[in-house]
Specification:
Blueprint: H1 3-34, H2 41-58, H3 63-89, H4 95-118, E1 132-135, E2 138-141, H5 142-164, H6 166-176, H7 178-183, H8 188-210, H9 221-235, H10 240-260, H11 266-280
Antiparallel strand pairs: 1-2
Length: about 290
Amino acid sequence: MTFAIFLEQVINGIIIGSMYALIGSGIALIYGTMRVLNLAHGEFYMLGGYFIFFLAVTYGVPSWLAIPVAVFATFILGVLIQRLTIHYLLEKEGWLFSTIAVTLGLSIFLQNAALLMFGEQFQSVPYYIDGMVEIGSIRLPLQRLLIFVVAVITIAAMTFILKKTRLGWAIRATSQDRDAAAVVGIPAHRIYLITFGIAGALGAIAAAMLAPIYAINPWSGLPILLKGFVVVILGGLGSFPGAIVGGLFLGVVEAIGVQLTSSEWRDVIAFALMIAVIWWRPWGLFGKKPS
């Protein structure tokens, strides 16, 4: 493998890893705020992809409008799912297991609902931008550069929200101590609704960017969910910065590993990396070691 090919694979890995980061950050955001492990998170990705497909392809809505509409629709879907299911379990005894069981059931329900409504066909979205960019001997499609730009903007916006806005302070306070946050007037249940919605929106953004590369089908959320769990385990369960770094790291390792072996080994590489981290540092790269 020449240096140019190696560098190109690293860049491709960073680009795909940025989407893994968005998926993982949604999982980490929900767990960090609510201590809920959302097994239906992959369906946010899947449904976001279908929203994009029907808006942009079936109804011909321009992509610059279809994407924000799909992201907002998935945000609302996340809010509704939290309010109609998780909300009623958090105050009950044994809620930790109950939320896992319910989100697993939601995942199966949404997959089968998508199968009934949309069929089993693989649907794809045309590239939003055509052409290639050449930097020396490295050639990259403009679509992939667009993916990276959108990921950087989204991560920067989320970082700003979490660190510089009242909503972000409320989310962080609720994640640290819900009862103490309630004492100072922060409505925990409203924060939970918004957090679930934001996580859904992050999944929809990832779907919008990857739909032209990876086709959408009723089961497309499962592999992306598994990659999301690898990301949050790498970065530390509940750590938003850890999910970002974990996603980029996973993307690069996968890209280089596939180049050295074959594409069939992609998932093997990802889960081998996860097992290694669990063995060496079970609390993740950015997680806190239990005292």
